[in-house]
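Internal ticket - ligand job 399, pyridoxal-5'-phosphate:
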Amino acid sequence: MKSDKRANLHFDSRAVYLPPDEASKSINPPIFMSSSFQYDADIYQQVIDGERKAVNIYGRCGNPSEYQFEEQMMMIEGADACLATASGMAAISVTLLGLLKGGDHVVCDWTTYSSTHEMLDHRYTDYSIETTFVDTADAAAVRAAIRPNTKVIYFETIANPTMKVSAIPPLVEIATQSGAILVCDNTFASPYVARPLEWGVDIVVESATKFIGGHSDALGGAICMKSDRLPDDFLEQIRWNTMVKLGSPLAPFNAWLLLRGIQTLSVRVQRQCQSTAKLATYFESHPAIGKVWYPGLSSHPQHEIAKAQMPEFGGMLTFEVSDADAALRVLDNLELACFAASLGGVRTTTQIPASMAFLDVPEQQRQAMNIADGMIRVSTGLEDVDDLIADFDAALTKI
Ligand SMILES: Cc1ncc(COP(=O)(O)O)c(C=O)c1O
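stdout (C-alpha cells):
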C-alpha cells in the first residue's frame, strides 16, 4: 500500500499495517542485527558525496530496523519525520541539545518527568542554558516567563503525578508569537490517547519504553516532528550532529519489539483507559482515600480541557492516602499489582511519586506542585479490573 493511502487509514489500521518485506515478502519485519554494513564502489561514492540515510553506514548512524520503527511512528503520530533513539530520555536529550545552545532560555512545566527536570535544572545550567519552571496549565504564567532568548517551551500532555493536562492552543499561540519551538512529551498519554502534532505542537517526544512497547521488555524513544517553523530536514540534521555524537541509537531488536508493540497499542490502551476509569471511581468512593487525580473524573481540575483534547483519558491515575508510611504499606501489600518503577506495561505498576520520581525536589517545592507524601501513582495493566479492585481493597485495609 502506498504511504499516502496508509496515512489516511483510521488509527487502528495505521498501527497494525506494515508493508511486507521486499526481499522475503514476510508480513513481519526482519531484524537487522548488524552494527556494520558492506560497502561497494557505488555505496562508497554515495557516502563520500554526503549521502546518509539512503545508505547503511554503521549501526550508530542508523539501521534498517530503526527506520521501520520511525516510519511506523510517523504513521501513528501524524508526523512528517521521526528519529528513533535508545530511550525516552535519549529522545528528550537529543531534541533539547539539537534545539539549544549556550545563552538560550527554556520555559518548562514544573512537573515534568524527574530526569527531564533535573537535566534542565542542574545540568544545562553548566552550559549556560537557563530554564524557568512554570505551571504550563497557566497560560499567563507561560507568557510572563518568555524572554527574547526563549527557544523552547516544554510540557507533557498528561503530567506526573497529578495527571495535569495543559491546554495546547494557548501554548501554540505563545510559541508562535515568541518564536519558541513547542515540545511535548506524550509518554503518559501515548499516541492512541493524544496526538499533539495535530494540535500544532512542533515536536513530540515519546518514551516508547512505556505504552508504545507495552510489555516492559524494551527501552526506546522517538522524536516526531510536524512543523512549518523548523527545516524539513531538522531531525536528519540532529540525527547526524547530535544523536550520532551522543551515541544513542535505538537497538535493532528493541526496534522490532516496539514495532510489534505498536500493532496492539489501540486494544491495550483502550482497555487500560476503561479499567483506569473504573479504578478511579472505586478510589474516589473509598473512605481511606483523600484525593484521586484522573483527567476523566469531573473532579479533576482540567477535566474539560482533557475532554476537548483527548478521546479517552489514559491509563494512569494517582490517589492519596494519609502519609508516606500508609502509602508504603498499601504498595507493599499488593499481590496482583506490582510496586515497580515505570509504566505503560501489561502489568499494573505502582509507585510513590514524592519519594521516587520527585525525591530530588525540595519538600516546599513539592507542596507547591501539589505532590503529597501519601500519593500513590498507578499505571493500569491488562488484569481483570475487578481483581485489581479486590487487590487494592485488601491492601488498603493494612493502612
Ligand atoms: C513522562 C516520561 N518521559 C520520559 C521518560 C524517560 O523514558 P525512558 O525511561 O525510556 O528513558 C519517562 C520514564 O519514566 C517518563 O515517565
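Auto-summary: Residues 87-89, 113, 156, 185, 187-188, 207, 209, 219, 221, 342 surround pyridoxal-5'-phosphate (CB under 6 Å). The mean pLDDT is 96.
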